[in-house]
UniProtKB/TrEMBL annotation:
Organism: Rhodocollybia butyracea
Transmembrane segments: 20-45, 57-81, 101-122, 134-153, 173-194, 215-236, 256-277
Location of region: Disordered: 297-324
Domain of life: Eukaryota
Biased composition annotated in UniProt, kind: Polar residues: 297-307
Keywords recorded for this protein, A-Z: Membrane, Transmembrane, Transmembrane helix
Protein's name according to its UniProt entry: Uncharacterized protein
Amino acid sequence: MTPEEVDEISAAGFVFMHNIGLNIILTSTLLGMYCLAFYISLYIYMKKRNAGGAKKAMLCVLLCTFILMLMFFVSTVGSLFEHVVSLPHAIKQSQGQIYETIISWLSNIIALIADSVIAWRAWAVWMDNKKVKWTLLVLILADIGITLSDGAVDESVLDHHLTINAIPLDCDAFVLSLSVNVIATSLIAFRAWMHHKSMTAISISIKRKRSKAEAILLLLVESGAIYALLQLLVIIMNELEVKKGNVSIQFEFATAFTVLVYEMAAILNPVAIFILVQTDNTYEQSFHLEEILTLSQPPQSQHTSGILNDPEGTPDDAGHTDQETDMIGIGRIDSGAGVHTAMSPMMIVAEQEAETQ
């Protein structure tokens, strides 16, 4: 066997491993995970009798991402046929490029949706601060502009077989997306620290657990941090590819795997956070009520239970329920007369939305 034949067999094995192991198996796993998460989120949404405007907007986002996920899977599987040119039913190379173009645009749109959801969360937490809102708006508009430009350049490269290197623009898009995520997550983290400080100040002599608002805010911070690490890893690998020029097949496979994991995180992040918050998996009591019975509160004002214990809520004198929808659109904060609710910034946001509805 000649060295040329060995190289051809090695290249064929890499293409087979890339198509089967990366594109088909991982993409199918992503589709299955998202379909399950999407079904759970729809079930949770249908169980809610009074869904606020933010939750309805979040439902529209989930529907859009579900459609994009189906299109991404179909395009990924369809693009595999362009590598199998010897089969009688193989598609033409031009048709394969159409699938590649669709995948490129879908990836950009999914990234934009993920960035918009992250900025939306920070906007909701800081809705009373105009400087923060304007900063987030400018970042999102810049992110949209760079991402659309990147998609247009990628399409030109695929359609006209250009030799220009589009990777630097890809890096710019990733860097701007990372900036949006880091700034928005930092703003949420700062709000979480402010809330923790205020809750600690009023509970010096009381044994206290993490409040519900703290749990939600920390969940948003943790998810944003993990997403930022994936973005940073993609940027590093793209920069290495730019500097090295001709990279090995193994490095190309590693880069493709990292990008696919990043896309999985981008599309699963909104629906995962929605489910975790709505099912109360992050909620804890703020205080041990048995230690403050001297306050002599009536039974209906002592509850701090979440959605699992009181799914319908109890209306107050103004007609509002104890479980109002927060402006983040992925959860709710108890706005009843519980002891811990008075100092929560997130609960103030919930009450403001309830008054406007």
